[in-house]
TrEMBL record:
Belongs to the Mediator complex subunit 14 family. This is Mediator of RNA polymerase II transcription subunit 14. Its main location: nucleus. One of its GO terms (molecular function) is transcription coregulator activity. The lineage of its organism: Eukaryota, Fungi, Dikarya, Basidiomycota, Agaricomycotina. Residues 1204-1215 have a biased composition (Acidic residues). GO terms for cellular component: core mediator complex; mediator complex. Transmembrane segments: none annotated. It is found in: Nucleus. Component of the Mediator complex, a coactivator involved in the regulated transcription of nearly all RNA polymerase II-dependent genes. Mediator functions as a bridge to convey information from gene-specific regulatory proteins to the basal RNA polymerase II transcription machinery. Mediator is recruited to promoters by direct interactions with regulatory proteins and serves as a scaffold for the assembly of a functional preinitiation complex with RNA polymerase II and the general transcription factors. It comes from the Eukaryota. Residues 170-181 have a biased composition (Low complexity). It holds the Pfam family Med14. Component of the Mediator complex.
Length: 1261
């Protein structure tokens, strides 16, 4: 029938096999390459006979030979990553050799001996040679298997695999290639195209994609292909064996005549058995009426079974019977619902049995919405695989009828069974259904609680819960407050078996599916009456979720012991509001409250009571169902605060069981301290009181420090002393605040927090030499300051004060306690006041008082160092000198009273100053650097001129040399001198220095006042006095100002003119003749002050000099004013003057000099041959006659004046003597070359001699 020259071979197109109609199996006809024969050059045959032995003559057994491309697609791909490049091996060999050589040359050979060095070199060479040989062996093997095979072209040569498989005449060279080295491709097969470059060629497909090729590669791919074929063959064999078994089980109908006839007549197998045709023959559809009728019958049958046949327990509620189903419910309002129907028994019997068709759950989570899984919105149907699994178990195991043999059921009470042994015992599938579904429902709730516990463990309860689910026992165990087990001593009891010995727990909640209790006999009686004496084979278990609360090791304290079972009535699991968090919070909060009461009951309340009217107390809140936002019980310790109520809250966290100490202020520093105290308390509950006291102390100290900063102070916690010196003196940085006082850098006001309250001290640092010679600080005197006494002064208003003798004792180095005792008495504090809270006013008063007290102490120490006795004099309560300030410190700052002789150490000063000197502390109320004012009242009030002649201000202020800010003031009205000193540490020596300087002016002023009272100095008057300058009138119309300059410790004298005695003002041209010689007079005054030992005669000597030289200078001025050129004045000294005339080339001179006893010597200048400053002098012609004539003239005038007086008054012996004295006023010296005359006559003598000299020498001016 078929042409023998044409073969019908199927071809592969698009994955399916089709028949090929090609006459000639060529490349051009069907697009496939015929691999039955190799394609050679020359004429192509028209017919091809198959050479494959698998091909038979039948067309349906023939299949095409695959093309090379199809073979390539069938083989699995090869990944180049499977090969290892030889480049990595070579790199490893080279690196190892270089490293070994470096070690050899750098470490091994230098330390080796000359004898051992060749051995190390040989060993290195051997190891390197072995490594290179191994690499060469691998490389030679690679080169041996990596042989190039001449690649056929795509048009004329078959594929190498096809040629190897189907061309028996070709013999390819065997080669087992390896992947290329140095990162090249793993293709070691010959290239189909010529590729230039380094490395082997690659086989490239028509589309340009590079395919990995090579002998090893192809071998691996063929191996994978054969393994896959073997697996397919094994699967095919297994399938054939399965089919063979199935065919053996089928019953083949014996062919008979009737079947053959029916088949011929009808064309179908109408005589087949119904069992075979039932599944294929279409059924007659039911009508609606028939369906309804069938459902009514089924409903009646269901009602009959429920009422008359089956035992229905009271726990199962029949909700409805409709649509061929019974709708039942159980487990309460939020339990479960189910639907059942009846089906025929599977064993072929006539009786039917119950069949579960659906189930619904009614429990829901707390807080879920209508659309949330498990939320509010009714019962939820069980669907999917869960429903199918429940139905299979219930219908196959639970509801299947069981035969009863009178034995007691699995869940039946033996006592009940004995009492009703005569009754009929029936199967109870509904009881089993209720027990199963109820257990399943509770198990589902337990799983929901387990998921909630896992969610809580990832939230706020993180690391505080341990959740364990025992599904075989239907128990959920939740352990809270988990923490590592502390290191126990060797003899401690070991934990129970089954517990993790690494952790301890605060408590355990065990939620289990348990039976509520055994059924009572009364219930059984009612059931028997209801069922007519029928005894069910099973009983209802009445399951529920039972909660057991047990105390753990970490939660035991006080009366709570580990292992104690607590009352869990408040931990009921409600299926309508399912929540493990509520039960856990309720248990944890109650447990935390018990622990808080146990921990706080052992606290020392007396040490924690800071406010008298607000002791620490436990604040409780009503119990609530597990709410995180509800306040928890806490132990409150009220703290003193000016911003409002503030307290430390001590709680036991319900989430971790640890004690938590919180500060309500929200201050970051205080919060950190509270956290540190929390850590310490949790480490050891025994030191809870100490930790709280330390925390409260730190808070009070910080509040006090902030209060001081608000007042503008600079408080510190440490002093520049050794760290170990503070604890030795009961001073700790955590509870002490040091405030440097502005008066002294070595004094500090110390505020220390003690159990009794805040205590204030005055601390002084002293400098002590160290071992290295460097000065260091140490704690010196300390004095306690009583704040209660300071407060007591404010409401009382006044206290008894007086003058106390100053003196320090060993117990009271600074006399502070004696001072406080003098200014105030103890007054009991108000019960509402807290000793841990200091008002700003009280704190400021204490600071001011401390600062003033330091100033007083420094002054007293200066007086003690100089052995100067003193007394303290406080201001009076009322009257003159009483303090006007309302401050409590106003009457507590005394003045130091010192005797003038003891202070100044000079008896002469007593004649100038009053007997007492007062040292007062000023500016203490400002709270800054205090000042010291030393008050000295002068004994003699200066005799000043009238206000019209010399107006003076009421107070004179004079700068001092101590500092630019200090000053010395004088009140002329009261003669009070005040010395103000800013540097308190030098107030006493500074006053002494200033007084030493001012005493020179003061002595002059006092002497002037004393001289004024004597007859010879009646004309001497004090015009002005301002401590540094004394202005006096030494002659009518002439004044002198004596100024003391402290900088160079010298006097400066200046002269001026004033109004005359009759009130007339001198002419403007009239000048004080001393003005031109004021430098000489200043020098003379300084010379007198330094040369004379008795300073009290300084003023007298200087005033005598002024009075005696005034007529001389006035006469000289008159002589010079009447003459045009001469005489010339030559000042030889402060008390010697020379008048010079130059006439006819000759020089004449008249010398005038002061002598003792207010006398002057007028002489011829030529007799002084030692003084050549004026050149050669010519004796005055007739000078002796002139002096004799002047003497005779003056004596005659005096005699005539005496005679006139004698006539009027009478002569006597006394009158004669007086005349003789007056006659001796003029005395000739040096045979008339000089004349000695009184000062008041020098003007006349000089005038007469000058006129006589000009006449004798022939000078006409």
């Amino acid at each position: 029938m078929s042409n023998p020259n044409v073969t019908m071979e199927p071809t592969y197109q698009n994955g399916s096999m089709v028949a090929s109609t090609s006459k000639v199996n060529t490349v051009e006809s069907n697009g496939h390459i015929d691999l039955s024969e190799p394609m050679m050059d020359g004429p192509k045959p028209t017919t091809v006979h198959p050479h494959n032995p698998q091909l038979g003559p039948e067309p349906w057994f023939t299949y095409p030979t695959p093309t090379p491309s199809q073979l390539e697609q069938d083989l699995p791909p090869y990944d180049e990553i499977e090969g290892v490049p030889l480049g990595l091996v070579l790199d490893r060999v080279v690196r190892k050799g270089y490293g070994d050589m470096k070690t050899l040359l750098g470490q091994t050979l230098p330390s080796a001996t000359t004898k051992n060095r060749p051995r190390h070199v040989i060993e290195y060479a051997k190891s390197q040679r072995q490594a290179v040989l191994k690499y060469l062996a691998v490389l030679r093997w690679k080169m041996a298997v990596d042989i190039d095979i001449p690649g056929p072209s795509t048009a004329s040569h078959p594929h190498p695999l096809a040629q190897h498989a189907y061309n028996a005449n070709s013999h390819p060279t065997p080669s087992f290639p390896t992947p290329h080295s140095i990162g090249e491709s793993s293709n070691t097969s010959p290239s189909a195209e010529v590729i230039s470059g380094k490395g082997k060629g690659r086989a490239t497909e028509d589309d340009g994609a590079v395919m990995p090729r090579g002998k090893v590669t192809d071998a691996k791919r063929i191996t994978h292909f054969m393994e896959h074929q073997n697996r397919q063959h094994e699967q095919a064999i297994g399938h054939v064996q399965h089919v063979a078994k199935m065919i053996e089980a089928l019953r083949e109908r014996n062919p008979d005549l009737l079947t053959a006839i029916a088949l011929l007549e009808t064309g179908t197998y109408s005589r087949l058995p119904t069992a075979l045709t039932e599944s294929f023959a279409p059924l007659v559809p039911l009508t609606n009426r028939k369906i309804l009728r069938t459902l009514r019958k089924l409903n009646r049958s269901l009602l009959y079974r429920l009422k008359c046949v089956d035992y229905v327990p009271p726990e199962l509620i029949i909700r409805a019977v409709r649509d061929g189903k019974v709708y039942v419910a159980g487990g309460g309002n939020h339990g479960w619902r189910a639907s059942l129907t009846m089906v025929a028994n599977g064993d072929g019997g006539e009786d039917s049995r119950w069949w579960l068709t659906g189930i619904e759950w009614g429990w829901r989570y707390k807080g879920r919405g209508v659309h949330d899984p498990g939320g509010v919105g009714g019962f939820r149907k069980v669907t999917g695989e869960a429903r199918q699994g429940i139905l299979e178990v219930v219908n196959e195991e639970i509801l299947r009828p069981r035969e009863e043999h009178g034995d007691i059921g699995d869940n039946e009470d033996p006592a009940v069974a004995t009492d009703h042994s005569a009754d009929r015992k029936v199967d109870a599938p509904f009881v089993r259904l209720v027990n199963f579904i109820e257990h399943l429902n509770l198990t589902q709730q337990l799983e929901a609680l387990y998921l909630e516990a896992m969610r809580l463990n990832q939230g706020r309860w993180r690391s505080s819960l341990q959740v364990e689910m025992k599904r075989d026992e239907s128990v959920l165990i939740v352990r809270y407050w988990i923490r590592p087990r502390p290191t126990a001593p060797p003899n401690a009891a070991q934990p129970k078996r089954g517990q993790d010995s690494r952790y301890i727990f605060g408590g355990t909640l065990s939620i289990a599916v348990a039976e509520t209790g055994k059924p009572s006999m009364l219930n059984d009686l009612f059931c028997g009456i209801q069922t007519g004496g029928v005894i069910p084979s099973e009983r209802v278990l009445n399951l529920r979720l039972d909660v057991k609360w047990e105390i753990g090791e970490a939660g035991s304290a006080g009366t709570l012991k580990a292992g104690e079972v607590m009352d869990s009535s408040s931990l009921r699991i409600d299926s309508s509001n399912l929540s493990l968090e509520d039960a856990l919070n309720t248990a944890a909060r109650a447990h935390a409250t018990h622990l808080l009461q146990a921990y706080t009951s052992s606290l020392d309340i007396s040490r924690l009571t800071l406010l008298p009217l607000k002791p620490p107390n436990l604040i409780t809140h009503p119990a609530s169902q597990g709410l995180n936002d509800e306040p928890i019980d806490h132990y409150a310790i009220p703290l003193p605060s000016k911003q409002g109520d503030s307290a430390l809250k001590i709680t036991v966290s319900p989430f971790n069981g640890y004690i938590e100490i919180a500060d309500e202020t929200g201050n970051e520093g205080r919060t950190l301290r509270a956290r540190m105290a929390t850590i310490s308390v949790n480490e050891s509950k025994l030191r809870m009181t100490d930790d709280l006291v330390r925390l409260i102390t730190a808070i009070i100290t910080e509040n006090l420090e902030n209060q001081m900063r608000q007042l503008g102070w600079i408080p510190v916690r440490r002093l520049p002393i050794r760290y170990q010196d503070l604890p030795k003196n009961d001073l700790f940085p955590a509870s002490s605040v040091f405030v440097p006082l502005p008066t002294s850098t070595l004094h500090h006001l110390v505020a220390k927090v003690t159990p009794a309250g805040i205590v204030f001290e005055l601390l002084r640092l002293v400098r002590t030499p160290s071992d290295g010679g460097v000065m260091k600080f140490a704690i010196g005197d300390r004095s306690v300051l009583d704040m209660a006494r300071l407060k007591a002064r404010r409401p009382r208003g006044s206290v008894d004060r007086g003058v106390e003798a100053a003196g320090a004792t060993v117990a009271d180095p600074t006399g502070v306690n004696a001072l406080l005792s003098a200014v105030g008495q103890d007054t009991p504090a108000s019960p509402s006041e807290s000793s841990f809270e200091i008002a700003n006013r009280d704190l400021m008063d204490m600071y001011i008082f401390s600062n003033a007290l330091v100033a007083q102490t420094i002054i007293e120490q200066q007086l003690k160092d100089r052995s100067i006795p003193y007394t303290l004099q406080y201001p009076p309560i009322t009257g003159k000198g009483a303090p006007k300030s309302s401050s409590a410190v106003a009457g507590m700052i005394p003045a130091l009273c010192v005797n003038t002789r003891d202070l100044l150490k000079d008896a002469r000063v007593a004649e100038v100053a009053m007997p007492r000197v007062y040292i007062q502390i000023r500016d203490w109320w400002k709270g800054h650097q205090c000042q010291v004012v030393t008050v000295v009242q002068l004994r003699h009030r200066p005799s000043l001129a009238s206000a019209a002649t010399s107006p003076l201000p009421p107070t004179v202020s004079v700068p001092s040399t101590a500092s630019n800010s200090d000053s010395i003031t004088l009140d002329p009205s009261s003669s009070i001198v005040r010395f103000r000193e800013n540097d308190i540490s030098r107030c006493v020596p500074s006053f002494l220095e200033e007084w030493e300087r001012l005493s020179k002016v003061l002595v002059v002023a006092g002497e002037v006042n004393r001289l004024n009272k004597s007859a010879p100095f009646k004309h001497l008057k004090m015009l002005a006095f301002d401590l540094c300058t004394a202005t006096l009138s030494y002659a009518p119309g002439y004044s002198c100002s004596i100024t003391y300059t402290p900088s160079d410790d010298s006097y400066e004298v200046s002269f001026s003119t004033t109004t005359g005695t009759d009130g007339e003002v001198l002419s403007e041209s009239a000048k004080n003749p001393h003005e031109m010689l004021q430098d000489l007079f200043s020098h003379k005054l300084n010379e007198l002050s330094k040369a004379r030992n008795v300073k009290i005669s300084l003023a007298k000597a200087f005033c005598e000099l002024l009075c005696n030289t005034l007529p001389i200078l006035l006469t000289i001025n008159n002589l010079r004013s009447t003459s045009r050129d001469f005489p010339k004045l030559v000042v030889r000294s402060i008390s010697a003057y020379r008048l010079v005339w130059d006439v006819d080339a000759k020089r004449y001179a008249l010398d005038v000099s002061l002598a003792r006893s207010n006398r002057c010597i007028v002489s011829d200048g030529s007799i002084d041959t030692l003084d050549t400053s004026c050149g050669p002098l010519t004796p005055i012609p007739g000078f002796e006659q002139h002096t004799m004539g002047i003497k005779t003239e003056f004596e005659g005038g005096i005699a005539a004046e005496g005679a006139g007086e004698g006539e009027g008054e009478g002569e006597g012996e006394e009158g004669g003597q007086e005349k003789r004295k007056e006659s001796e006023r003029l005395v000739l010296l040096d045979e008339g070359r000089a004349i000695l005359c009184p000062v008041h006559l020098v003007s006349q003598v000089m005038t007469s001699l000058a006129a006589a000299i000009e006449t004798s020498v022939g000078y006409r001016g």
